[in-house]
């Protein structure tokens, strides 16, 4: 018996990583989906037990016996083989056919995140890692990056603090999580509605009106849910009714949420202070591409400055249309008028016949065209595969390298609505790519779930152009999740900088607006004719209508999020919202409302959108800069596509993300291409 084992005689031997619960998610090398609800919970529990055993084992190794394999790699493997169990299984809550399986899977989501975070709070594991790091090992770049990422995870969770501070930190943490949970409970349970007459629904279509619930006396109920709210705000002629609905909408979450938000911001500041950061953003930003407060502030302020004239011109045009239409003076835009008049303006001057265009986009044709365009660009092929799925509607493709034939990923498409299925469009990975202990790579498995209109009445499934754009967006996520080449899951998937995460997807949206691409992906479902030039031109012309005002609103929310989290002491979040909204977006906050009570992004338990609302703009600026090279050097330029794959889609976070974008561009990125895409030169 060697010394290591003797030293930990009281411990159970480690479980072979990936052979236990993780391994049971596969049959013949493929993910399985034939679970019972009991099996789902039991698998997670087993995975959690295996994780504990493996962490206990690695923590007990004597300091002088530590090496990369038994400490860093063992931690990475223990963690990865745990995390992909709840991650994979909890996804079934979005689309499995069996409601009981969906429920069991949904229960795993929070459980998995809790367990994952509990790893970063294990002092003994941090100590083990630190012991090894203190030997100053000579490591290759990827291994060194892995070690650094792991140390960072522990240190950012307060593990490097003194015992007293660590206790204080943990207490603040629990308090903060409770506040955030309560905020979301309030938001989810919040109910209010507007009761309107048939006249007040004037402007809305029959389909919309017919699906509204009715009161006993025959009036109509408009709820605050998006499918009710958005069409009402953009189409209901009654300004009075729109104003009432907007007021209710901007009070969602209730007053208690205002306090919970302010408490949370204060707790975040205190936690950051314990970790030695003056301001909360100083804690958040170093692990993002933005890196620091000053860079981010300058980024947002500059975009505000550049976009404001265009947004103001849009708003003036809407006000003019309002005056012409109503015969009344209109000099200030309001929150309840903006969606309505921007929609009327678009309808009047940029009419796009969505129903006609749709006839040219049979779903199958769009998908095969998309595969052709991006297959050539990225040097990959898509081959239909007969793998197990969770529903007969689901189609599976294997993405392979064109040159080597190497399998890159399994790609599942679940495109049509079903009872109990997720109601938006999104992409997830069941498992990422990483190296298994035998040296083989785990094949990533990625899914797009959407809710396109299925075939029926002799008409095939057809896509609106906005759905085509969504599909391209999601496909960008698929390629990013598929193509990572790191040995370690910690350096891939959604572990990349949070302000980079939408760049890969927003980039591909650009191709959905190019006439040459629109020709390739269209074929009228009756005649087979490609989308005609005049429809293409009406579509392309309408692209930027109203975008500047919408972008300025997003910019305002980004700056609000940043300011709120930067203040040195507790601020009145309503007053700050009101002042910044007026100053930046030019539109006053509606009196008596507190929209930050439903600003769920900055109060998320799972996603780091606090000091993170800006990430959409940041990613978009990068995406547009990258696309500018394709505009200049060819949309279908395969050589450039190979570079794109190499520097943007495969590195994950093995290298610094800023560095990789610079490598692709040959210079640092900037917002010029983005502004140009809005028509600002
Ligand atoms: Zn996305």
Structure commentary:
- The chain is of the alpha+beta class and 681 residues long.
- Among the domains are: 3-160, Endopeptidase. Chain P, domain 1 (Glutathione S-transferase Yfyf (Class Pi), Chain A, domain 2, Up-down Bundle), CATH 1.20.1050.40; 191-249, no CATH class; 357-499, Collagenase (Catalytic Domain).
- The chain contains 27 helices and 10 strands.
- The strands form 3 sheets. The protein has a 5-stranded mixed sheet with strand order 6-7-8-10-9. It has a 3-stranded antiparallel sheet with strand order 3-5-4.
- The protein is globular, with a radius of gyration of 26 Å.
- The site of zinc ion has 4 residues, from helix 18.
- Zinc ion (ZN) is lined by residues 473, 477, 502, 505.
- Average predicted confidence as pLDDT: 95
**Known CATH architecture of one domain:** Up-down Bundle
Largest sheet: 5 strands, mixed
So, the CATH homologous superfamily of one domain?
A: Endopeptidase. Chain P, domain 1
- Structure class: alpha+beta
Whole-number radius of gyration? 26 Å
Strand order of the largest sheet: 6-7-8-10-9
Distance between the termini: 73 Å
Q: Which class of one domain in CATH terms?
A: Mainly Alpha
Proportion of residues in β-strands: 5-15%
Which short descriptors sum up this protein?
Glutathione S-transferase Yfyf (Class Pi), Chain A, domain 2, Collagenase (Catalytic Domain), globular, three-stranded antiparallel sheet, binds zinc ion, 27 helices
Please summarize what this structure is.
The protein is of the alpha+beta class. Among the domains are: 3-160, Glutathione S-transferase Yfyf (Class Pi), Chain A, domain 2 (Up-down Bundle); 191-249, no CATH class; 357-499, Collagenase (Catalytic Domain), CATH 3.40.390.10.
């Amino acid at each position: 018996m060697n010394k290591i084992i003797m030293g930990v005689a009281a411990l159970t031997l480690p479980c072979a990583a990936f052979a236990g619960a993780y391994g049971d998610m596969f049959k013949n090398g493929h993910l399985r989906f034939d679970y019972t609800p009991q099996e789902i919970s039991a698998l997670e529990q087993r995975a959690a037990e295996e994780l504990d055993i493996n962490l206990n084992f690695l923590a007990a190794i004597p300091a002088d016996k530590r090496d990369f394999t038994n400490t860093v790699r063992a931690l990475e493997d223990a963690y990865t083989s745990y995390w992909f169990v709840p991650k994979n299984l909890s996804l079934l809550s979005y689309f499995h056919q069996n409601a009981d399986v969906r429920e069991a899977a949904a229960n795993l989501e929070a459980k998995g995140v809790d367990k994952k975070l509990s790893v970063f709070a294990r002092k003994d594991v941090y100590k083990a890692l630190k012991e090894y790091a203190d030997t100053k090992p000579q490591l290759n770049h990827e291994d060194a990056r892995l070690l650094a990422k792991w140390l960072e995870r522990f240190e950012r969770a307060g593990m490097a603090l003194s015992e007293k501070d660590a206790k204080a930190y943990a207490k603040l943490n629990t308090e903060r999580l409770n506040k955030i949970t309560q905020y979301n409970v309030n938001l989810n349970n919040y109910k209010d509605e507007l009761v309107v007459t048939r006249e007040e629904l004037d402007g809305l279509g029959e389909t919309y009106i017919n699906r509204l619930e009715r009161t006993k006396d025959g009036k109509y109920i408009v709820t605050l849910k998006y499918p009710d709210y958005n069409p009402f705000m953009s189409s209901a002629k009654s300004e009075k009714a729109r104003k009432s609905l907007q007021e209710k909408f901007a009070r969602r979450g209730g007053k208690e949420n205002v306090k919970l938000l302010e408490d949370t911001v204060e707790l975040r500041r205190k936690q950051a202070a314990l970790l030695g950061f003056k301001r909360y953003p100083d804690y958040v930003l170093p692990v993002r591409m933005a890196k620091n407060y000053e860079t981010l502030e300058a980024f947002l302020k500059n975009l505000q400055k550049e976009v404001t004239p265009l947004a103001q011109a849009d708003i003036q045009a809407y006000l003019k249309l309002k005056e012409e239409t109503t015969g009344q003076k209109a000099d200030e835009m309001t929150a309840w008028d903006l969606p309505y008049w921007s929609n009327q303006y678009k309808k009047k001057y940029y009419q796009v016949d969505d129903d006609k265009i749709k006839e040219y986009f049979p779903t199958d044709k769009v998908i095969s065209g998309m595969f052709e365009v991006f297959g050539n660009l990225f040097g990959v092929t898509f081959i239909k595969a007969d793998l197990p799925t969770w529903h007969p509607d689901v189609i599976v493709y294997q993405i392979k390298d064109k040159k080597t034939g190497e399998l890159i990923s399994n790609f599942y498409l679940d495109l049509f609505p079903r009872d109990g299925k997720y109601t938006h469009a999104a992409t997830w990975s069941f498992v990422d790519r990483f190296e298994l202990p035998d040296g083989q790579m785990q094949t990533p498995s990625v899914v797009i779930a959407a809710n396109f209109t299925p075939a029926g009445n002799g008409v095939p499934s057809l896509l609106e152009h906005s759905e085509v754009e969504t599909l391209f967006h999601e496909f960008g996520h698929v390629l990013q999740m598929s193509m990572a080449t790191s040995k370690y899951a910690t350096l891939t998937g959604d572990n990349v900088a949070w302000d980079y995460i939408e760049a890969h997807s927003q980039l591909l949206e650009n191709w959905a607006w190019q006439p040459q691409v629109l020709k390739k992906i269209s074929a009228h479902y009756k005649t087979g004719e490609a989308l005609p030039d005049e429809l293409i031109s009406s579509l392309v012309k309408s692209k930027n209508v109203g975008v500047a005002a919408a972008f300025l609103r997003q910019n305002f929310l980004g700056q609000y999020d940043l300011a709120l989290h930067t203040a040195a002491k507790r601020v009145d979040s309503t007053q700050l919202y009101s002042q910044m909204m007026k100053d930046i977006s030019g539109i006053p906050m509606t009196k008596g409302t507190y929209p930050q009570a439903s600003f769920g992004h900055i109060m998320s338990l799972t996603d780091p959108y606090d000091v993170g609302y800006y990430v959409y703009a940041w990613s978009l600026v990068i995406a547009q800069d990258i696309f500018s090279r394709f505009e200049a050097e060819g949309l279908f330029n395969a050589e450039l596509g190979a570079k794109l794959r190499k520097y943007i889609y495969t590195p994950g976070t093995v290298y610094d993300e800023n560095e990789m974008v610079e490598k692709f561009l040959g210079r640092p990125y900037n917002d010029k291409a983005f502004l140009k895409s809005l028509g600002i030169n």
